[in-house]
Amino acid sequence: MSGFSQPGVGDSPDQTQLIDESERTSVEVTKIFNEALGFFIGNLSQPEKKYFSEHENAQSVIIAIKAIAETHPVHRSRLTTACRKFQHLVSRLQPYFDVVEVFVQAKPEYMALIWGSLKMIFKLSSNYISFLEKMADMFNNIATQLPAYEEFVTILQRRAAYRGETHTRLAKALVYLYVDILSFCHSAYALFINKKPSLKLKLNIASRLVWQPFDVQYDALMSRIKQHNNLLDLELRLASTKEAIAHFTRYEESFTKIRPPDPKHKEIHEDEGLTQLLNRVERLKKWIHPPQWTERLEEAREKRAPDTGGWILENQTYQTWKKFDREPNGPQGSRILTIQGKVGYGKTILCSIIIDDLGSYAIDGECAATHTGHSVVFYFFDKRHRDANTPTDAIRAMLAQLIHLRRFDKITVDAAYIIFKKDKTGQYTASKAEVLAVLEMLLGHLKFTYLVFDGLDECSDPQELLKMLGLIAEQSKTSAILLVGRPSVQLPARFNKSCVRIDLDPNHLQHSNDMAIFMLPQLQELSDEYLFSEELDIDQTVELITTKANGIFLWAKLLLDYLKLSSLTIQDREDIINDLYRLPDLDSLYQVILANLENRFPGASLNSVSRLFQLVAYARRPLKLAELHHAISLPFDRQQTRRDLIPNIRDSLGPLSGSLIELTRDGKAQFIHVSIREYYVEISSTQNQDATPSRLFTGEDLANRNIAASCLSYIIYTVPPEPLSGSSQIIPNAQVTKGKHPFLEYSLEGWIKHFSRGLRPPRGRAESTAGGDVTWTQLSHLLNTFLTCEKFTTVWIEASWLYEKPPAVPKLPDLNSIRSLLTDHPEALRLIRDSYKSLEELSRDLDTLHKSWSHILIKEPNEIWEPSIPAFTKSRFWVSTNKARVIKISQSQMISEDFIVVCSQLSQDGMRMGVVKLIPTKQWIDDNKPERVIQNNGKCIDGSHDNWIARYEIWSLISNSLVTAVEITLPRKDMQPFVKNAETFPHKTIEASVSLPLGISDDLRVIIILNTIISVRTDEPGNNSNSGQGTQVTFDHQVLNIHSYVDIVDPTHRSFRKLYHLKFDQSNKYLVIMHEPLLEAIDNPFLPSGGKYRYRIPWILQIFCDENHSPEQTTVPLYTHFKTLRFSAVPEIAVIAPLRGLAFHPSEPVLAFTQVLNGVSGTYIWDFEEAVDNAFRVHDMPMMDPVFSADGHFLHGTKASSEFYIGSISDLEIDCISSQRLNMTRQPLITKLPADIGLERSSSCKGKEIQRLQKNTQQIQGFENFRSAALELAAQPQPPVQRANTLSFSKDADGVAQISRLWELRKDSAVVLTTLGLDGKLQNETLSRLPDETQQYYDISIVHGLNPTDGMKDTMHIVLNRSSRRFYLYSDLNQAPPAIVERERDSIPSYVTTVNLEVAFNGQLPKLT
Prior knowledge:
- By secondary structure, this protein is an alpha+beta fold.
- Helices cover about 40% and strands about 15% of the residues.
- The protein has 45 helices and 42 strands.
- It starts with 12 loop residues before the first helix and ends in an 8-residue tail after the last helix.
């Protein structure tokens, strides 16, 4: 290898020079080691320095880490698992230092620094087990990527005598790796010690002055380790100096790409770093998914009367608790404070005062990066908001607040981001355990944090919350907890013994003064408005009410609101004040207010009041005013009109509810206090059955049935039974729809959820007979009507997807358990029993709909009305179609129920289809079931000695009947190379897979599977019968020795995979076989990061010729090897589908193919019957899906995409199929070939002949040339089959030449036909949408010669062929067969625009969308 000198007796001048270079390298490397060591040690305290120097070898640090794990009091098992991963890294690094010794004297401190870092990280993170597990995974991944240094030590020691460039490159690579790992460990260590990492090497090669997120550092480290591995491999394999130097240069550049910012651009770099940091904070908050947390605090501030509540801040117990930060290591009890008081005392107002006192910046103020003070996070529980009232909701909100407050603290963001990485679960929302892990970590990391909880008694599970807080209190000694609520919550014993408590005294003097301050101005205002008589003494009234209130602020407020009602007379108000002894508590006050409502709203008008209370008390979420406005007056048997609505509902809400219901800041209706709901629910459920029940109080069971009926009625009668936008081809707008139908969004899930809850037996009260309540008969009829009319359910499905609430049917109560409710309602029982069956069927159909069409409906919910979905997925619950139908081919005639449809192919005339089915062995099927694969650690087992079977069928598309079939035995030994072990595929499942190379001729008469050729002969020459009846069919076979010719080129069998690709020419005379090489992925292009593929060696292209070929095809074929060509394939074609870069000439032995030659890709023509290599380029760009014209004078295709993904063609993007906006993509490529493209066989001047042909080849550019070529191509006979992605030329009804292309747009699951006329007319037709489970397996074609089936007229036939793939998964067993989509043309969405072709060209061909 260049750079090494040969050993000799003495050193030559060159060798002396190399030794000098080596010494300089040693000095330079030692300097880097020492500098890294110095900067790290310089950043440590004296105790830390001692701790880091304790371990000089790998064994001692492993022992120390094991001891930490084995002595942990709680997580011993999990720490032991993590310990093994740390040990893996230690064991991989020990031989690394042995290699370093070859190049430089490695001081013990170098190793001790790494060992000490690993031990410190393990020790510090052992208190945060989730973090430790994440760190262990990271270190284990690093260890896995590191080279096996122990294998290289001897080699490198032997080579050490030959100093040179290799020595220098390896030495630097080793020290770079050391600095990388040390820097990463230092950043990890900093996460746990509340200290910013300051390891900033002052070397150009290792500057870390620009902040990088911790996970970005990790990804960059893993990438550089891979480069390090490649460099080591190149050097040790004695690769070419040029290749090694090039790789080292890339490696060094990647290491040094983070450089100190230019002072001139310092502000720009800082802004970019800040933007990156804040973007990460936003992603973290989305991942945490907190509920809204500031609204209740803001409401409390608004309700707070000036100069009230301040006395709580002077409480000595509060003052002591507040100053816990002065003794952060004091007893736990001093850090937990509870404030308890009766209902209505004003605890929420006091809590808001405390939060402001603890620190107003905690809400939304700007928190500087240098802030080191305390933080305040809070949450207000509220039973009125049942959708955000769990302990986890509170923890999520508090964590989101902490992240926001510390959003400029890089270490805080890094620490949270470690858990955020979704390497294991893949979920987009943090789990409860992850939220707790991050919160515990941050609370232990930050200084002095207050956690404030209001409404502890209103939490859905107070004991679970207290359990979580107990863990937090134990973990973090720098956090204090405040719990505010009623005395009804039983605190755990450990809380009772240690926490301090403030009991709110109703007779507290300052509290009474606050109430007087609150009451006086409002009573004075009533007096000023002459709502009291002049004789009423306001001061005495304030004192009287304050005394009677007994410290309950809520009682006083409700009384004031009641006195403000305009329906009361002056005498009514003064009677209430004089009779306050009748209102000793809140319940008595509620009773008076509600009784007054029942008296004021007699008859039918009380129905709206009753419905109002039911909706506020029992709705699944608080309703907005517009929703409530429509819901309280909905009739159950007809459409709601404006006459049904209550005018000026906002101002009417107070009088209708006796001021017991209010609107929140965001316009949602709720009781002014949770105790009102508690009173309403209790009275509703305990009314004496013998007494006359109040019409205002409705039990929960009946209320739920009323709401369910309202929802169903709204969907059935009020929302029009048609597409929400008015057209099935226009996507509805959610906001516009909400404006038209305010109650629709709630009704979508409300009808089934409330119906389910309404099936529970009543508790302690008789069924109401009030006119405003729904009867069982009404409800059952509504439900039956909804389920039996497809338009109603289709509207429901469309609206559900519009509001991103996929429709579903939850589990209902057992039917037998509700029979007792319906004893007196036989008709209702019958209808509900029928509805239960329908709901079960609907649930199954919705599951199928979600699985197949969710990818479309989530973006375009209107598609449920279009023909594609009902054609593919039939159901009686959504609209059917007579405009389209799906005809499945080859769905019967199988000898086994377990098979894989490998591929299908149309005949040239489009009248027949060939289908290949693979029948695995029974044992392969049994042994590779998902559960067995997991048990076998992904190993694909096929222990049987049975053979696999391939079945080839030919089907008539006219009659959809089987013409003929043949079974081919595939010996197990031949199949074995193609049966693969299970692996993880893009859809995250572990499956076994199998490959099956095959090819089918265009006329379906010849097929090759593996190495077996089967030919189909009939007794009638040239017979193209579609029935097969009365025709004698003969099958001939030939075994082809395919790999024997590859062995000549590659005798070591190391360069080529067993996989190959096969294609026949139009006449079946020639067979081309493409052998796929082993690929070396420098960067994996199938990962989101992108990348490129590089090939180690060229591909091999073989031509086989049928020696017995005759035009009549009556003889038995005999294929023999004819020609072999080595070429470099174009990656963006070969990786997708290699055969999409090939095309046979229609009449000459000429092959068009794409290749990379001298680093430039293009399209070439090869006359393969010639003995010499005569391939010449006909187009500068590689053509995807090239096609020769019928006369062979043109070759046309499309530009190969530079971006590609496994298993799919170009991933074309359009904004929306239904949009009027047109995007331009991919230009058509056309080349005009010489008329005598077939070379004269007798010519002896092949070189000159090729030059002449190449010179006469014209790449079509410019509008006039394109127009001329299009006219000539459009005049030629058009094939009856138009295949996907190929160009087609024709004339329209007016004789205008046009070019068209059939697309499968995968992101939109759409089959689109784009046509561009020479008159500038550009048309897009969406022929069909495809279900999710089929689109990646289909090749699309249009057949022009098929007649409409019964009941249809003027149809297009889109054929969905099963595409041949590199491998087939276990889950492909028994999947959908090929099919034909037949659709009437007048139902196809068509979007037309006009372009000026001469302007649009600009020297290039127009692009087709």
